[in-house]
Design brief:
By secondary structure, this protein is α+β, with helices and mostly antiparallel strands. The protein folds into three domains: about 100 residues, no CATH class; about 70 residues, no CATH class; about 60 residues, no CATH class. It is about 50% helix and about 10% strand. The protein has a four-stranded antiparallel β-sheet with strand order 2-1-3-4. A hairpin with a 7-residue loop joins strand 3 and strand 4. Helix 3 packs across helix 4 and helix 7 packs antiparallel against helix 8. It is elongated, with a radius of gyration of 26 Å.
Length: about 240
């Protein structure tokens, strides 16, 4: 294939082609199918190819139809089932056909559970999955910053996999130092070690003159643990004092 042909295909590809399907995407697709929206129009609305729409439709069909219905006919079959079967559950079919752990219903259980501080043991039963999986999903949903935040709010089973992970995270934090590097100060580059992120941030404020222009001061604070060259790296921003 020529370079011009490849570039042409890249330019014409929908901008969400290949992206993960969100609950809202699935709802938009199902609503469109119920209301008779043409396949091409659905593809344009969802910014995906018609082939991707057809493939998603097929995954929403019952498992017993996966081998008998062709992808090109999947949207027609799905429209028929949505129109004739009031109990038809496309999301349940997606769970089965894609081995999907999370769907809008389970996400809502986790979201409400987080708000209500529902014990993690109860959420494990409610969504039929592990503590580790729930912690990961809460992080991806933006509920928790990390596994420690999940355990501090909802608890966990002593000695379980999530408990072990959090112990390791606490051990790493206890063995870590924070390296502060600041450039653009009147006395030149500054490098110092600190016991915590907050200590490093406070020191940055202390050593940076209030009048220093923000564009001339650059700073980073990095977490480093013994035996590991990797860790959190954060950029700090100086806010100079303005005088009237």
């Amino acid at each position: 294939m020529s370079t011009d042909s490849q570039n042409s295909q890249a330019e014409s590809a929908p901008h969400r082609s290949g992206a993960a399907w969100s609950p809202q995407d699935s709802a938009t697709l199902l609503d469109g199918l119920r209301n008779g929206v043409p396949l091409d129009d659905l593809a344009e609305t969802l910014q995906r190819t018609t082939g991707a729409i057809q493939a998603r439709c097929k995954k929403m069909l019952p498992p017993e139809l996966q081998t008998t219905v062709q992808r090109a006919d999947a949207d027609l079959k799905l429209r028929h089932l949505l129109a004739t079967d009031p109990d038809f559950d496309a999301e349940a079919n997606l769970d089965h056909n894609t081995a999907r752990t999370w769907n809008p219903t389970r996400d809502e259980i986790l979201t409400q559970g987080w708000r209500d501080r529902r014990p993690l043991a109860e959420l494990v039963t409610a969504v039929s999955t592990s503590e580790i999986a729930i912690a990961g999903r809460l992080i991806r949903l933006g509920m928790a910053a990390n596994s420690l935040a999940v355990v501090e709010r909802l608890g966990c089973a002593p000695g379980g996999a999530l408990d072990l992970r959090c112990r390791m995270m606490r051990d790493r934090a206890a063995a870590s130092v924070w390296v502060l590097v600041v450039d653009g100060l009147p006395d030149g580059r500054h490098v110092s070690l600190h016991a915590s992120r907050s200590d490093a941030g406070d020191h940055f404020v202390t050593i940076t003159p209030d009048s220093a222009p923000a564009e001339t001061v650059t700073a980073t604070v990095a977490e480093r643990a013994l035996g590991s060259p990797h860790g959190t790296v954060e950029t700090l921003h100086h806010e100079p004092t303005t005088r009237s």
